[in-house]
């Protein structure tokens, strides 16, 4: 495996996995605490609809998927804020619409689309330097927005009190939705539409089982999300199985261990 890590494509795969694991886990803590775990799936399918549209228009799928998923994320937040519908209902509506649009766009494209299959199931070993640059820029954006973490945590645990303290809770909701959409879109090529929700939810859920404070939960989730990447890649290389699946199963194993130790 050490020899494999000397190969450029394996180095890119490892770096991409670490970036995706860290970013998704960081936001996943807020997603899990706000009981929005279905949001990852909804935005993943919105990203796939955007990818399908990009392939149909013969444009770079990532640059079409980003505004598409951002629009869906903001619409989900708007519906949640403007109606009495539950979060799961609002997400479910746009989940269904995104799937329908993805199927429609793919049906309009002639012939078999192996590149679309790669986005469905992920292809971490084909990550390009450009993909890494996009992920790096997103990581930099997260660092710049790190001072907002306290406000996000405050609104997560007591939204009404945060509103009473005149915090811009609604604007933060839209910002968080947009950030989650961005992370999901740039992660789709790494782990795929089918598995990206696991990167958002499982490390955060595991951290919740073993952490006493929200800050500790955030740090633990990031560690779990990143440290599960290397064992997953090792398993994928050794057993010749898909890397995304191996990483998610590693995360699931850690969740199972945390659950067993909690008992």
Topology:
Elements (H helix, E strand, L loop, with lengths): L7 H26 L4 H19 L4 H22 L4 H22 L5 H8 L7 H16 L4 H9 L1 H6 L4 H23 L4 H15 L3 H14 L1 H11 L3 H20 L1
Protein described:
It is a single chain. The chain is mainly α and 263 residues long. It has a single domain, classed as ABC transporter involved in vitamin B12 uptake, BtuC (Orthogonal Bundle). It has 13 helices and no strands. Helix 2 crosses helix 3, helix 6 packs antiparallel against helix 9 and helix 12 packs across helix 13. The protein is globular. The mean pLDDT is 87.
Let me know the average pLDDT: 87
**Overall strand count:** 0
How many DSSP H or I helices?
A: 13
CATH class equals: Mainly Alpha
Unreliable residue stretches: none
Q: According to CATH, what is the topology?
A: ABC transporter involved in vitamin B12 uptake, BtuC
Descriptive keywords:
mainly alpha; ABC_TroCD; ABC_BtuC-like; 0% strand; globular; 263 residues; transmembrane helix; 80% helix; single chain
Summarize the structure.
The protein is mostly helical. It has 13 helices and no strands.
């Amino acid at each position: 495996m050490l020899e494999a890590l000397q190969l450029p494509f394996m180095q890119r795969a490892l770096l991409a996995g670490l970036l995706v694991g860290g970013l998704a886990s960081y936001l996943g803590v807020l997603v899990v605490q706000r009981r929005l775990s279905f949001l990852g799936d909804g935005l993943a399918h919105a990203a796939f609809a955007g990818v399908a549209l990009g392939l149909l228009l013969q444009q770079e799928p990532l640059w079409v998927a980003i505004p598409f998923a951002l629009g869906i994320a903001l619409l989900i937040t708007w519906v949640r804020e403007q109606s009495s519908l539950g979060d799961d209902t609002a997400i479910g509506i746009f989940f269904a619409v995104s799937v329908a649009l993805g199927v429609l766009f793919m049906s309009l494209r002639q012939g078999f689309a192996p590149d679309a299959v790669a986005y469905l199931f992920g292809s971490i070993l084909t990550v390009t330097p450009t993909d890494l640059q996009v992920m790096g820029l997103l990581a930099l954006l997260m660092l710049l927005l790190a001072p907002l973490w306290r406000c996000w945590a405050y609104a997560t645990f007591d939204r009404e009190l945060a509103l009473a303290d005149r915090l811009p809770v609604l604007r933060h909701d839209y910002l968080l939705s947009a950030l989650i959409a961005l992370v999901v879109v740039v992660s789709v090529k790494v782990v795929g539409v089918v598995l990206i929700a696991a990167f958002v939810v499982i490390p955060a859920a595991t951290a919740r089982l073993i952490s006493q404070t929200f800050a500790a939960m955030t740090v633990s989730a990031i560690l779990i999300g990143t440290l599960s990447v290397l064992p997953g890649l090792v398993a994928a290389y050794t057993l010749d199985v898909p890397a995304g699946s191996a990483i998610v199963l590693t995360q699931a194993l850690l969740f199972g261990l945390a659950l067993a130790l909690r008992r």
